[in-house]
Amino acid sequence: MNQFQYMRPTKQKAAIDALAKDPNAKIIAGGTNLIDLMKRGVMTPLKLIDINKLPLNKIEHEGNSTRIGALALNGAVAEDKLVLEKQPLLAQALNAGASAQLRNMATVGGNMLQRTRCHYFYDTALPCNKREPGSGCGALEGYNRMHAIFGFSDKCIAVHPSDMSVALVALDATVLVSGPKGDRRIPFAEFHRLPGDTPQQDTNLAQGELVTAVEIPDAAFTKHVHYLKVRERASYAFALVSVAAALSIDNNTIKDARLAMGGVAHKPWRLTEAEKALIGKPATEETFRQAAEVAMRGAKAFKYNAYKLKLAPNSIVQALKTAAAVA
Ligand code: SF4
Fold first, then answer.
1. Which of 88, 123, 243, 268 is the most exposed place for a label (fewest CB within 10 A)?
2. Per-domain boundaries in the chain
3. How far is the CA of 137 from the centre of ligand 1 (A)?
4. Is 220 strand, coil or helix?
């Protein structure tokens, strides 16, 4: 591991000032991803700004939304009474992620900022445009079994690994950030980026900006929700495909719907057209299959991930069936 400076500010302004003036500085909180990346030489920050002393771990309900501080632990959020009551889909997604040990260390801010698990990104002997811009994409013609079927570019075909973020994009969350120019709010759907020509940038955070909280509006998605994660073993594995499904059903008619997928794109993949195809229809398997067809428009596979073209629509149907059946 390379040598680095370490600071642990007690004021948010000090953390932002330090981050803004040093492009080689990185925020650390739980460290469950960053430390791995540093040990392997994938990320080599020269300064770590430990924000664990900042008061950013509250979970509260204000007005018509639930606000979760960036330092709230994944495990604590998944078990929080308020979250279970108002946002059960988020709790399900969090519990599907990582292991209990990691959930008790990893923070909400860190979860959304975690890096892809593309093997080429982690192996510094192999080309990777995300790790080293201009070096090429090893996965494009390589072993791309875990990779994207939507929104990729010829520079990067990686997927975002977070389960929590799939639920948050479906639930229309907003990311609250604070930076040298003040505070701003970023709709969750616009927080992560598609790779384009600059896959090294995962998000639309500006230099010096710190994620302080995430806000989720109240909605009628407290009953018919399901987070389905398809993975190669029962726990502690990243999704091959995941689906966050939330329905509002009245008299077997779908009044409102939210749908998003994970494991299929460089960002949590919201399926707005498929949602439109659900609204006003009866909550039947036929409706769900039609929505899944809409969701898959534009999907394209690579040599080793063609299975996702079948797995993804089947997962959408299964997630919607389970959500609809929840009494
Ligand atoms: Fe790197 Fe992205 Fe290609 Fe993976 S898919 S090797 S992360 S550029």
1. 123
2. 1-50, 59-113+160-217, 224-324
3. 5
4. coil
pLDDT digits (tens, 9 = 90+) for 160-202: 999 999 999 999 999 999 999 999 999 999 999 999 999 999 9
- Indicate if ligand 1 lies below 6 Å from the C-beta of 159: no
d(CA 55, CA 213): 11
Using DSSP's 3-state secondary structure scheme, residue 28 falls into: strand
Structure tokens given for 74: 């994944």
Q: What is the CATH number of domain 59-113+160-217?
A: 3.30.465.10
CA distance 90 to 30: 19
Q: What is the pTM of this model?
A: 0.97
Q: At what angle do helices 308-325 and 285-295 cross, to 10 degrees?
A: 140
**Which CATH superfamily is 224-324 part of?**
CO dehydrogenase flavoprotein, C-terminal domain (3.30.390.50)
Q: Which atom of ligand 1 is nearest to the CA of 195?
A: 2
All residues at 6 or more sequence positions from 127 whose CB lies less than 8 Å from its CB, including other chains: 120, 135, 136, 137, 138
